[in-house]
Amino acid sequence: MTRPLLYGEYPYYRALPERWDANLGALATAGIDVVTCYLPWRFHEIDGDGYDFSGATDAQRDVLRLLRLIAAHGMRAVLKPGPFVHGEVQLGGLPDRVSPTVDPALPAVLDADGKPVTSQALALPSTFGPAYAAQVRRWLSAVDEQVLTPHLAPAGPVVAVQLGNEGVYSDANRAVTAHDFAAPAIAAFISALARTDPALAEAARTSPRNWPMAVRAAWARHGGTVLRAQYEELAAALKPATREIATVNLPLPDLTVAGSAAGWLLRTADLDDIGFHEGYTSWVGNASRSADAFAAHWFGVRARRSSNVEDNWGFTWTDESFARPGTVLFHALLALGLGSSTCSVYTSTATTHWGPEIDLDPAGLRSEGLDPADYGPPYCPGAPLHENGRTGANLHALHALRDLLRAPEVPHGARFSADLALLVPDVLARAAAWTEADGPADAVLRAAIDASIALMTDHQYRVDVLTERSAAHERVGDVWLVPLGAQDPDDALLALLRRHRDGGGSVILLAERARPGWSEIGDVLVPITVAAETLPRLLPAPRYAHPASDPGVAFVHEDPAGHPVGLFAFNPTENAVLVRRKLGDRVVTADLPAFGAAYLHAPSFDVAVATSDVDLPSFPPAGLSLELS
User: N or C: which end of the chain has fewer CB within 10 A?
Assistant: First the structure.
């Protein structure tokens, strides 16, 4: 299938089994191609000794029946057995018995200050502990043997199995000071250092907060090695045929947290050639209303070239606008505009029936500053469909997305195109990831991201994101923006930039201040503090610019011959705008309301779908005054 696929999350463990069939039928009618669902370990484990996947002890555990129903409705399935799944399930789906709070013999995940990392006040077990690792292998082997292998496509509906969750403990976008500093994790780090740099290994034999800069940078880079090894260990519990369909879901970077973007780049870097399919989850805020969230989507999706596997279609606890069809359609169009081959509806169905194995511990929530009332039924309120057969407002957006993806005239398969690229050097990421490091690295990286967003929003440029790895085998843009901190470029970066310049490309360095020998590295040096206003005067004119366009972001998709065939326009501001671009001889216009988005495609470039088609009116309506007495 060449068109993008629609994923729909269905938390069967929160729905009455007698409603599964009707719910899944409604999902198929609404346009869902692939049903995704977590398999919570704690829910299927029986007395710590066995597992129930057939409903022998509880009909709600009958995931085998669930798969038969999914297949009967013509859909496929992606199963997500974790072991840690989050999913607002107690202890992320882990049995309480594997928490070091319950079993002190198991080492706990520790942060850089030596404090246990917890979920609902229970310590999470370190993956470096052999006893816990053995329990994980046993769980995943059972899932594979009893659930996955018998139902693999094409004979069955299972097309993928997801390993872990956004890293191991939803941690792949956290600053490196939040990674696992348990004693066996530190020992493994020192052992790895000792093989290449014994002096650096010796310097690491102290409290992490006292590590010198070189050790901190090595730790930041080591995080990617660890995550790859953790994923490979999870995959090793599966049979070869199941490993072939393994996938990982990575979070987007959280640009509101210092060091997150850099730490995320390093944490995910070693996954490029691991052989697993990759997708992204988008729990970093509302991209239609938050500049940070919009930037995180652009930066994260383009840096990893990944596709959406989990997007908010109804969690309203922190942002009620996710119950509005315009908001969720904005996110879906943003995913497609950034090149995603899938869109996710999480969750597709608001559910209301779950037991104590799933329910979050109220006291544990309160201990972490959370309100248990937010986590009560339904899960989640704004979903397009409801377990009881009712529908929500977001169904309008789901229907619009379904109709767009299935329309035969829509040119699927075109590629994201760019005028220039932001290249993030490894040396900058290593310095910025540990937020207490010397130098302005984190501020330089964030300023470079902000300058790129300004180029797109205010000056009509199309900007891509490159890492040193992707830049080595992709030619994206003749102009590269390269931010640098106080650290000197290493040999790998110098060689990469030299090849780009020798091939006719140009390099614009973005730095805090002038540095000796910069002309050997790049063509122009721009102080990062004035990059947003200086770059438009230096850069070649954007290919598709129109002089009468209002501010707004437009991603243009091109066919293999370089012809524009699709335009995704976005307005993440509170003012209505007219976004215009000149595509060849044609002027294309998108009339966007506040927080609006639209998609237009060849040959006519009329609006095919827009958030204004589905969104709800504001309340109270504009111009209406209310007097309360």
Answer: C
Token pair of 219, please?
């730790």
SS3 assignment, position 561: coil
Q: Are 361 and 121 in contact (CB under 8 A)?
A: yes
Q: What is the 3-state secondary structure (H, E, C) of 101-114?
A: CCCCCCCECECCCC
In degrees and rounded to multiples of 5, residue 397 shows phi and psi of -65, -40
pLDDT in tens, 207-246: 999 999 899 989 999 999 999 999 999 999 999 999 999 9
Query: What DSSP assignment string belongs to 121-186?
Result: TEEPBPTT-HHHHHHHHHHHHHHIIIIIGGGBTTTSSEEEEEESSIIIII-TTS-GGGS---HHHH
CA distances from 607 to 91, 478, 569 (A): 45, 31, 10
Q: Phi and psi (nearest 5°) for 6?
A: -105, 120
pLDDT tens across 448-501, in order?
A: 999 999 999 999 999 999 999 999 888 777 899 999 988 889 999 999 999 999
* Residue range 560-577: mean pLDDT, rounded: 95
DSSP 207-253: -GGG--HHHHHHHHHHHHHHHHHHHHHHHHTS-HHHHTTEEEEEEPP
Amino acid letter, 589 = T
Rounded Cα distance, 179 and 263, in Å? 10
pTM: 0.95
CA-CA-CA-CA torsion sign (84, 87, 92, 93): negative
Alpha carbons 40 and 87: distance in angstroms, whole number: 9
Q: Is 5 helix (H, G, I), strand (E, B) or coil?
A: strand
Tell me the backbone φ, ψ of residue 350, rounded to 5 degrees.
-75, 125
Looking at residue 546, what DSSP letter applies?
-
Contact by Cβ (8 Å): 599, 567 = yes
Determine the average pLDDT of the residues in 71-89: 97
The amino acid occupying position 404 is L
Cα dist from 441 to 25, 64, 298, 465, whole Å: 51, 51, 20, 18
If 0-12 CB within 10 Å is exposed, 13-18 middle and 19+ buried, where does residue 320 land?
Answer: exposed
Contact present, 477 and 539 (Cβ < 8 Å): no
Distance of CA 538 to the CA centre of its chain: 33
- Euclidean distance between CA atoms 200 and 447, whole angstroms: 31
**What pLDDT is recorded for position 508?**
96
Q: Please check whether residue 79 is in contact with residue 87, taking contact to mean a CB–CB distance below 8 angstroms.
A: no
List alpha helices for 31-103, DSSP H.
41-44, 63-72
Whether the upstream peptide bond of residue 378 has omega within 30° of 0, thus cis, is yes
Higher pLDDT, 367 or 136: 136
Tokens of 23: 């719910």
pLDDT level of residue 441 (50, 70, 90 thresholds):
confident
3-state secondary structure of 437: coil
